[in-house]
Amino acid sequence: MAADTSPTIVWLRDDLRVADNPALNAAVERGGDVVVLDVLDDESDEVRPIGSASRWWLHHSLTALAADLDALGAGLTLRRGPAEKVVMAVVDEVGAGAVHWNRRYGKAREVDARLKTALKDRDIEAVSHAANLLFEPWTVQTGSGGPYGVFTPFWKACLARDEPRAPLEAPASIPGRAVEGDDLDSWELLPTAPDWAGGMRDEWTPGSTGGRERLEQLAEERLADYHRRDEPGFEVTSQLSPHLRFGEVSPYQVWHRLRDGLSGLAAKNHAKFLSELGWREFSYHLLFHNPDLATVNYRREFDAYPWNDPHDAGLARWQKGRTGIPIVDAGMRQLWHIGWMHNRVRMITASFLTKNLQIDWRVGEEWFWDTLVDADEASNAASWQWVAGSGADAAPYFRVFNPVLQAQKFDPRNEYVARWVPEEGTDDYPEPMVDLKESRQAALDGYEAVKAAKNRA
Ligand SMILES: Cc1cc2nc3c(=O)[nH]c(=O)nc-3n(C[C@H](O)[C@H](O)[C@H](O)COP(=O)(O)OP(=O)(O)OC[C@H]3O[C@@H](n4cnc5c(N)ncnc54)[C@H](O)[C@@H]3O)c2cc1C
User: Where is the Photolyase/cryptochrome alpha/beta domain (predicted)?
Assistant: First the structure.
């Protein structure tokens, strides 16, 4: 029988890289031409349209990826529309015999499952690969065979398994097949009126090259100071999150880059850093088993919480960084300016919204979804629920962050606040929009309804 040299489609999603991309390597190994396809899907019911800051990132990430693919001999085909329809249309256009992709783990996997069935019904090979998580969510199970709901035993179980595989080299060349597609500019991913992305341009280099630079900086410099990761004024965290979110860098590449050659404090901080990657894995574990994580309370008794009306409670002041609480305002302005916020401050701002203003965590999750360049369907939803108290392994609801004490502890020299709220202490800066003590008590009173619902259940 003659070898099948029909073209293969590689359908890219959250894996915008040429190295350590199992779907791409498998397509090249199969033989025949390779069509590399990216689809902007704002239409499928199961796919959450990405937010404004992520759109900015995506534009630049695709530009970088297209250059990397060109250098290997393949182009990047862009199409817009519901993914199942679009992929099938490209299959027909080129007479593809196979479609490969790397897995995703939220609701959108229903799209992938339907497409796989439809392709197989037509005798077209449809293969999904593990690429974006170190441990496939369904393979990590409790002793009784269920999903984990607590981080520590989850991560212990992961670490007890075989070490994650080594990252794959990029193909030496790709026999690319040109297919007509959209012009990236026609997707209108960049802000124009106004162009609010200046701070992001200064801060970030979207794409694998920028991601690799962050990884090197982590290994060579930042990891040695990582024990100070909770201090927002001191830049020691990796800032790899948007690169991981868009798959420009894979967790396998991160894991293996940090595996050998560390010494001193960097070696000491290594396990802590890996456990942060573990939180990413845990968030995906939760999302896989709870596809509605961004909209439904993980702990259902929180359905009874009497949230305030967001507009009456001052949502706009929180969004604009005008609450009158300096560390909260600093975080919200950092977010607006560079599309990223330090983890400690994400916790403080989220706690302020859900507890001191008693605004539903879903409202905050949506704002972060729109404004973060690393907005991630698993980590964002899981973290918001964690802070609100409704999530898995969440801090007890009554542990309300006091933002003033948090700032004293983690920004003792006021460096972070001074950078983002230079007018603090002048007449231009507003008074606190709520009394912290009273609003904390109001939050705890609201929690009584949750406790009552739990007791009834
Ligand atoms: C309310 C709230 C919302 C959040 N939303 C997101 C989000 O949309 N996307 C996102 O990637 N992270 C989110 N996080 C988690 C965390 O704040 C960021 O991952 C981290 O700040 C990214 O900075 P870094 O890359 O320098 O982190 P590092 O400390 O260098 O950590 C390395 C990597 O580990 C992962 N990671 C670290 N901490 C966490 C965590 N707590 N949960 C899950 N993964 C983690 C990230 O991929 C990160 O890049 C959120 C946290 C909170 C409290």
Answer: 6-134
Give me the amino acid identity at 369.
W
For residue 166, report the distance from its CA to the centre of ligand 1, in Å.
23
Tokens standing for residue 228: 């100070």
Contact by Cβ (8 Å): 36, 24 = yes
Whether 227 contacts 272, CB under 8 Å:
yes
Give the atom of ligand 1 at the shortest distance from the alpha carbon of 238: 30
Q: Are 168 and 83 in contact (CB under 8 A)?
A: no
* H or E stretch covering 91: helix 83-94
- Cα separation, 214 vs 116, in Å, equals 36
Around ligand 1, the residues with Cβ closer than 6 Å are 229, 237-241, 244-245, 276-277, 279-280, 283, 343, 346-347, 350, 368, 372, 374-376, 379-380, 383-384, 387
What is the ipTM, given to two decimal places? 0.99
Cα-to-centroid distance, 50 and ligand 1 (Å): 17
Residue nearest atom 47 of ligand 1, based on CA coordinates: 241
- pLDDT score at 2: 62
Q: Identify the structural domains of the chain with CATH numbers, from first to last.
A: 8-131 (3.40.50.620), 133-165+206-289 (1.25.40.80), 300-452 (1.10.579.10)
Q: Are 22 and 171 in contact (CB under 8 A)?
A: no
Contact 242, 203 (CB under 8 A): no
Distance CA 421, CA 118 (A): 55
Tokens of 35: 């069509």
Look at residue 1 in the predicted model and tell me its pLDDT. Answer: 56
Q: Return the pLDDT at 131.
A: 98
Q: What is the mean pLDDT of each run of 10 residues along the chain (457 residues)?
A: 85 98 98 97 97 98 98 97 98 98 98 98 98 98 96 98 97 94 98 94 98 98 97 97 98 96 93 98 98 97 96 97 98 98 98 98 98 98 96 83 98 98 97 98 93 85
| Among candidate residues 50, 78, 74, the one with its CA nearest the CA of residue 62 | 78
| DSSP state at residue 424 | T
The alpha carbon of 9 is separated from its chain's Cα centroid by a whole number of angstroms, namely 26
Burial class of residue 12, CB neighbours in 10 A (0-12, 13-18, 19+)? buried
